[in-house]
Write a structure and sequence with these properties.
This protein has 3 domains: 185 residues, 2-Layer Sandwich (Alpha-Beta Plaits), CATH 3.30.70.1790; 143 residues, no CATH class; 43 residues. A hairpin with a 4-residue loop joins strand 9 and strand 10. Helix 5 packs across helix 8 and helix 13 packs across helix 14. The strands form 3 sheets. Strands 4, 5, 6, 7, 11 and 12 form a 6-stranded mixed beta sheet that branches. Strands 2-1-3-8 form a 4-stranded antiparallel beta sheet, with no helix packed on it. Strands 9-10 form a two-stranded antiparallel ribbon. By secondary structure, it is an alpha+beta fold. Helix content is 47%, strand content 15%.
């Protein structure tokens, strides 16, 4: 966690039994000062003199979030699901550590140490910490545990109240990043604050409402992901000859990309990439100008779900003149007729076993196999009928089939 060979840096080590005891020790000696049999804490960042103050920060070593998921009524598995979701949607990168703190979780991203003496660097660090908190707020992120001088529990120390050891449950030694790389995640939020869009007001929400918000986030991501994929497929089916509808396709695609990635730079990059595949692409300047209203609608939708562009399938089908044959290759932009046909096909397939037989056909085949086996053993038709509880006439029919 800490810079190697840094003889001038200090780490804060604290214990809390009946009273809070804290001391600042050189980096090379901190492990000898911990007490693993009680509540024990250590600072994530280091200091250039023996005091745990923001003004004294020497090196910034990691970003982190303290998640008390039990406070919002969700499980540890829900948090892991959220982490995977945020990674897959380019909102955050894979963590270096996930630590079970005894009751909650610490998620930590190690960075190449950055000098913390500069005001601008500290400001950027705090801004990124705020972004990470906002990202994990719905799964229980602690709003008071994001400052530069924060201490977290030491792995293998004892959480007295929970009577559990603090454990490292995930560690990826390759997941070490630069501070500048994290800056990409906060740019859209800077734009959001600087534009004339309304800010989303802070409000207290219940645990049940929080769960609905998380579920909505996952569902809406899946929907936009499928629709964006359908637009890509439609362009491919038409050999990227989209004259007459290029502007609108890029506009809608960009709007979907904003919802998927929540990053204006990524959304624009993806949209320009699709435009480049057109037989007759639009000028880049025109694309950037055209999608600005998409950005505005996206932020309006974040504030009020009834605003923005809530496209219906029928609207997109009519807009792009999507034929029934083209719909067969799409995932979600389909008509009711195509939806019914797929459901009926799925039900027919579900009725069949691995051999492609319906339950009735499978039962008949099972009877035929039994009749054949008994016949090969030398039993007569009457004896086979008695053994299987069938009529002699039915046994005669099956033997003819065999």
């Amino acid at each position: 966690m800490y810079p190697k060979g840094d003889e001038g840096g200090y780490v804060s080590v604290a214990t809390k039994d009946q009273h809070w005891k804290e001391r600042n020790v050189p980096i090379s000696k901190w492990t000898s000062k911990v007490n693993l049999n009680t509540n024990c804490y250590v600072s994530i960042n280091t200091f250039y003199k023996p005091e745990r103050r923001i003004r004294s920060v020497r090196h910034l070593n990691a970003f982190f979030v303290d998640i008390d998921y039990y406070n919002v009524g969700i499980s540890k598995e829900d948090v892991f699901h959220a982490i995977d979701f945020f990674i897959n949607t380019d909102r955050i990168v894979e963590p270096t550590f996930v630590i079970d703190s005894g009751r909650g979780l610490y998620v930590i991203w190690k960075i190449e140490d950055v000098p913390g003496i500069y005001k601008q660097t500290k400001s950027l660090y705090q801004h990124i910490q705020q972004y990470i908190y906002e990202l994990f707020k719905d799964v229980g992120a602690d709003p008071s545990a994001k400052d530069i001088a924060r201490v977290l529990r030491v792995p293998n120390s004892l959480h007295i109240q929970a009577n559990r050891r603090v454990k490292v449950i995930y560690f990826n030694p390759e997941a070490i990043y630069t501070m500048s790389m994290f800056q990409q995640f906060v740019d859209p939020f800077e734009i959001y604050r600087n534009k004339d869009y309304k800010k989303i007001k802070n409000k207290t929400i219940s645990n049940s409402e929080r769960k609905r918000n998380i579920k909505y986030l996952f569902n809406i991501y899946t929907l936009y992901k499928a629709r964006a994929s359908d637009i890509e497929t439609l362009c491919e089916l038409r050999n990227y000859d989209l004259k007459g509808m290029r502007n609108n396709i890029l506009f809608v695609y960009h709007y979907f990309m904003l919802h998927i990635h929540r990053n204006e730079q990524v959304a624009l990059y993806k949209t320009l990439n699709l435009n480049d595949r057109f037989i007759d692409p639009l000028p880049e300047k025109s694309v950037k100008s055209y999608v600005q209203s998409s950005v505005r609608a996206y932020y309006e939708h974040l504030e009020d779900k009834t605003k923005g562009y809530n496209y219906k399938n029928d609207t997109l089908i009519e807009l792009y003149k999507i034929t029934p044959e083209e719909q067969k290759h799409l995932k979600t932009i389909i008509s009711q007729r195509e939806k019914y046909d797929r459901n009926n096909k799925r039900r027919r397939q579900n009725r069949r076993n691995k051999a492609g037989l319906t339950p009735r056909q499978a039962k008949k085949q099972e009877t035929i196999n039994k009749v054949k086996a008994l016949h090969e053993q030398g039993l007569k038709q009457v004896e086979i009928a008695q053994e299987l509880g069938l009529s002699s006439g039915r046994i005669s029919q099956l033997l003819k089939e065999i």
